[in-house]
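User: Earlier you gave me the apo prediction for this protein. Now I'd like the version with magnesium ion bound, so I can compare the two side by side. Same sequence as before, with the ligand SMILES added.
Assistant: Got it. Here's the input I'm using:
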Amino acid sequence: MIIAITGTPGTGKTGVCNASGLACMDLNSVIAEQGFYTGVDAERGSLIADLAKLKEYVRSKEKEQKRLVIEGHLAHFLNPDVAIVLRANPLVLAGRLRQKGFPPQKIQENVEAETLDIILAEAVERCEVVYEVDTSGKSVEEVASLLRAIIDAELEEEKERERRSLRERYKPGSVDWTSFFEMICRTATYH
Ligand SMILES: Nc1ncnc2c1ncn2[C@@H]1O[C@H](COP(=O)(O)OP(=O)(O)O)[C@@H](O)[C@H]1O
Ligand SMILES: [Mg+2]
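And here is the structure of the complex with magnesium ion:
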């Protein structure tokens, strides 16, 4: 069973996974360390992931470990059984990315992607079970403890009541950034 923690960069995947104390595979590190990339995106300063190789690697780890938690903005592409999509209010996200030192164009791209629900839509298209968790206004520890509760309910067969209630509470569609559409249109630059 594979559980994917995904979301736009800056929504808190790595920080929350570290704070949760769960054994979690950081896909960005795997891509860099195992050389699972086909090139470098010079404009974005990031690696272009080799999804086929990453998929194969994750599948082999799942065979060994049976239960695998993976995190990264590509995690929902790796055939997970469950996807947990972290969300952040676009203004909050811009602040977090600024603090992480992202250049303005990368901040804009990610704020647009978050506002338009891109990763959520991709996850819903591919995964049977999807949770949507808004991290804005919460502490990293709060989100980490919610993540533990969700993963626990998904992994423990007998926790059906908790599972049903959490799936209902965090079902896709619970977050709505449409009020930010105007903002991203106003700040958009066309190349
Ligand atoms: N409630 C929250 N959940 C997750 N991250 C938060 C939260 N509040 C503040 N942050 C901060 O946002 C940043 C998210 O960065 P990171 O975890 O690297 O994101 P990602 O791995 O999704 O790109 C961290 O600096 C983290 O401390
Ligand atoms: Mg990360």
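For your comparison, keep in mind: The radius of gyration is 16 Å.
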